[in-house]
Structure formats: structure tokens, C-alpha cells
Amino acid sequence: MLRPGWVGLLIFVLLWLPAGAATAPRPSPEYAVKLTTGQQLLLSSYRGKVVALLFISTDCPHCADTCQMMERIQKEYGPRGLQTLAVAFNPMAIMLVPEFVQRTRVTFPVGYDERDPVLKYLGISPMLRLYVPIIVFVDRKGMIRGQHLGDDNFFAAQEKNIRATLETLLKEPAAAPARGAVKKGSGAGGK
């Protein structure tokens, strides 16, 4: 029979350790960034580019700062093959994204989704307490090469670490680009 102290430790291990970031590298599952215009951007359509995929909350100051920093980085690294995308997944994100984009002045696509599809894409447990922003790096071949939750040490030197990751990934050869970057759809909450 397990002692109470061991039971508590076992519960902690079961809830927290497997709930963290999934391992990388791993193939990126398909994911559709839903835009408020009703369009969906398929992540696979960016094959051949390096994708920095941000998962954010529209009311998070650190997310706004990170998006503004990524706007500068996108302008610098975009010609070399970077595509930045952001997905807000806080409650009512579909209504809050336009104001967030206006306030932060980002020009890269910012969409929305619900929590469960985001967690499924990230490969993490719904039991996990999430801290945002979350950044996922997808290489030119569609492999997730890095995934960092908002409380990760990666964010202590955020810009330096993002630039170092991008430099590494952008030096790798490009795969053949995928076709059909935009998929028409309802975008209004459909999955």
C-alpha cells in the first residue's frame, strides 16, 4: 500500500511532468489558423518556410510585447523564409483579435481558436496551467523543432533565443513549397 506522501508525489508526477511541452523534434500536425475574415491559413501551406507560431492571449501584456518584437523580427527575417503566425485562444478571442492587431500594429496573420484544439496541437494535457505566450518553431520540412511555454526559461532572454533558433532553422535547406496557403471556411468557431 502506498503512503500518503507517495500518493501526493505520484499525483504530481502524473499531472505535471507529462503535461509539459511535448518532445521536439516531431512532425507538426495540421493546424488551421482561423482568421476573423472567415479564412483559414493551413500550417502545411507554409512548408518550405520556417514558421514561428505564437499562441497568445489578447489581454496579456507580455504577449503584446512578444508580438511587437516578432513584427520586427518578421520584417528582418521574412525575406529569408520566416513566416510568423499568432493564434489568440482566450475567451472571446474572435471578437478581441481585431483590437489586439490594431493596438500592437502587427502585420503578420493573427487568428483565434479555442483552448482544446490549441492543447491538442501542442500535445499537452488540459490539466496543465498554461502561461502565455507560447512559441512553436516549425522548420521548412514541417517538423516542430522547438516548443516553449510562457513560463519556460527560454523567455528570460526571449529575443536572443528566438533569433538564435531562427538563425539555425533558416540556414537549413528549404523543402518544396506547399500549395494553397488559404483555405476558405466559416472561420466563426468551426473546427
Radius of gyration: 17 Å
**How far is the first residue's CA from the last residue's CA?**
45 Å
Structural class computed from helices and strand pairing: alpha+beta
Quote the CATH topology. Answer: Glutaredoxin
Q: What proportion of the residues is helical, as a percent range?
A: 25-40%
Spatial order of strands in the largest sheet: 1-8-7-4-5-6
Integer average pLDDT: 87
What low-confidence regions span 5 or more consecutive residues with pLDDT below 50?
Answer: 6-20, 184-191
| Count of alpha and pi helical runs | 5
Q: How many β-strand stretches?
A: 9
Q: Would you identify the CATH architecture?
A: 3-Layer(aba) Sandwich
Write the layout of secondary structure elements.
Blueprint (H helix, E strand, L loop, with lengths): L3 H13 L9 E2 L4 E3 L4 E4 L7 E7 L4 H17 L4 E7 L4 H12 L5 E3 L2 H8 L11 E5 L4 E6 L9 H14 L10 E3 L7
Helix pairs in contact: 2-5
Detailed description of the structure:
With 191 residues, the protein is an alpha+beta fold. 34% of the residues lie in helices and 21% in strands. The protein has one domain: Glutaredoxin (3-Layer(aba) Sandwich), CATH 3.40.30. It has five helices and nine strands; from the N terminus they run αββββαβαβαββαβ. A six-stranded mixed beta sheet has the order 1-8-7-4-5-6. A three-stranded antiparallel beta sheet has the order 2-3-9, with no helix packed on it. α3 links the parallel β5 and β6. α2 runs parallel beside α5. The longest helix is centred in the middle third of the chain and has 17 residues. The C terminus is likely disordered.
